[in-house]
Amino acid sequence: MPEINDERVGATLINVFKIDPDNQQPLIDEIQENVESMSDLPGFVSFSLHRSLDGERIVNYVQFESQEAFEAIRDSRDWEEQMSDAMATAEPDPHFYEVVLTHESSD
């Protein structure tokens, strides 16, 4: 499981996709098909995907060594061509974040 406080992480992209519940699983499937190829890209650290229980959102949590590494990955691929029908139904809201606090159970 990815560590949120991983020392290699210089940038975290959190993208919340607002989506019709009927399209939630198709978009998850599409993202899953496309994310497999990211693991060998320079600067990529980890990728986590979360679905809301009401079916109206998908949250994508991606860690990179730097924001520049993300931009290089983004610019090197034709994402629109790979993500088709399901992505067209989503309203993405991506932003970069930095970790300011993590806390774990003592168990």
Structure characterization notes:
By secondary structure, the chain is an alpha+beta fold. It has a single domain, classed as Alpha-Beta Plaits. A four-stranded antiparallel β-sheet has the order 2-3-1-4, covered by helices on one side.
Main features:
alpha+beta; 31% helix; 4-stranded antiparallel sheet; Alpha-Beta Plaits; 107 residues; globular; 4 helices
Please render the helix and strand layout as text.
Blueprint: E1 11-18, H1 21-35, E2 44-51, E3 57-64, H2 67-76, H3 79-82, H4 85-88, E4 91-97
Antiparallel strand pairs: 1-3, 1-4, 2-3
Query: Can you count the helices?
Result: 4
Cα radius of gyration in angstroms: 14 Å
* Percent helix: 25-40%
What is the name of the CATH architecture? 2-Layer Sandwich
Mean pLDDT: 84
Name of the CATH first level = Alpha Beta
Give the termini distance in whole angstroms.
17 Å
SS elements, strand count: 4
Oligomer: single chain
Count structural domains: 1
Q: What coarse outline follows from CA principal-axis ratios?
A: globular
List the helices and strands in order: EHEEHHHE
| Strand adjacency order, main sheet | 2-3-1-4
Indicate the low-confidence ranges by residue numbers: none
* CATH fold assignment: Alpha-Beta Plaits
Major β-sheet annotation: 4 strands, antiparallel
SSE class:
alpha+beta
**Residue fraction in strands:** 25-35%
